[in-house]
Every structure is written in structure tokens, then in C-alpha cells.
Amino acid sequence: PPTTTTTNKISESEQLPNWEQYFQQNDDGDTYLHLACIAGQENIVGALIRVAGNPYALNIKNDYGQTPLHLAALSRQKTILRMLLLAGAEAHLRDSRGNTALHLACMSGDVQCVSALTVPFSSEEINEAQRHFGFSQNKQLSYAEIRNYDGEYCVHLATEAGNLQILGTLVRFGADINAREGKGGYTPLHIVIENNNEELFSFLLNDCKSKLDVETTTFGRLTAYQMACRMKRSKMYKILEKYGAEPLSPPESEYEESSDDDEFE
């Protein structure tokens, strides 16, 4: 009679290095770490960081281009955001819409998450991370000017939302208050004039006075003063003139062709 031989089959996951077994991706591209971030399971996140032993596993993207850091921002998990950053997660990575974790925190209006993504590490935090994880991030956080695929920096999202606390936090940690968004070249000052937001207008002119350039133009060559005139914001253009803005009449068309190639980078 034929003899039957049995072979011991080893599953693919069992052949992987120990840490990789815990970072396999499901049908949506999520790892256990992605799922733990969404659920706010701080203990599990900490355990997975210890198993990972290196930052690579912390930056795996799912099918939507989201890292665990993105999902922690979306689910407003400020403690987990800090844990991931201290362990070496990359804050500058973008999802499928070009958003970083900081973009998402600004969109949600969560001041604590924005702070978690921008405030420099304290020596106590670094020592605690070393004790918990066996390693910690050596580099300090640095604010990165990154546009999403709609051409928006984080300062534009905060300004559009009228969120003074978030805008103030971004400026404090290095955001360019004169940055132009990628579609119309609007700065935060142009946006607050368009939205008639007097609170943010006052913040920009008073708290950001040393950094603010009131003569920065849109891609259509409109200064803030000219935009205020065009939109008949008489109070605003009078204040701008007091702050040294040149009182120029607005051009006939907002969409005059620009010859500066670097405006569209």
C-alpha cells in the first residue's frame, strides 16, 4: 500500500524575525500598532514599541497612506502621539491626501494634539522613554513646512478654522506666518481678511508683528491692504495702513499672470 508522508509546514509568519511577526498588515494595510492607536490602547502601543526595537516598524503605512502617528492624531490620542514621537516615529510623513499627522490635528481642532506634535521633548520625557522602551529618540522635534495636496500648510488650516490657540502654537514653534498656500498664494493674513476674522487679524498684527510681512502678495499680486480694499473691509485697511502697509489700489484683475516661477513650487 502507498505510504503517506507528513511534512511539518511552517507558517510564513513563523519564519519572520520576532519583531516582524507583530507588524504584519491586514487587508487594509493596518498593523496591530495602527489598531492600538485607533483604540487608544496605550499599554499595547508601549508593548509594540518595545518589540519593534527600531523606528522602521513605527512608520509602516496602511492602504490610505496612514502611519500609526496619523491614526493617533485622527483619534485624538495625545499621549500615544508623544510615545510614538519619542520612539522615533517620523512626523513629516504624508498620507494619501498629503496630510501629515500635524495637518490632521489642525483639522480636528485639537490643541493638545497639536502641542504633542510640536513641543520639544523634555529631558524627563527622554529618560522615561529610555526606561520604558529601552531606547528613545535622540533628535528634537523640528517644525517642518509641508503642504498637503490641496497646497495648504498647517497655518492655513488653523487660520481657515479661525483657531487662535492652534495658530499661536504653530507660530511659537517655528511656522512661517507669511507662507502662501499653493492655489491662490494666500497668506494667513489674506485669509483672515477674506473671512473678516477680526480676532485673528489682531493676533497677526500684534503678536506676530516682528515676523509678519504685510506686503506679501497672492499669486494675483494682491497685498493684504489691496484685498481689504477690494472686499471693503475699511476697518482692516485703515489699521494696515497704520502698521505701515503701502496704500496701493487693487489691480484690475486678481489673476494677473505671475512671472515668478518659485511661486508655484
UniProtKB/TrEMBL annotation:
Residues 246-265 are annotated as: Disordered. One of its GO terms (biological process) is cellular response to tumor necrosis factor. ANK repeats lie at residues 28-60, 64-96, 150-182. Keywords: ANK repeat, Repeat. Residues 253-265 have a biased composition (Acidic residues). One of its GO terms (molecular function) is NF-kappaB binding. InterPro entries: Ankyrin_rpt, Ankyrin_rpt-contain_sf, NF-kappa-B_inhibitor. The keyword 4Fe-4S does not apply. GO terms for cellular component: cytosol. SUPFAM superfamilies: Ankyrin repeat. Transmembrane segments: none annotated. It comes from the Eukaryota. This is NF-kappa-B inhibitor cactus. It comes from Ceratitis capitata.
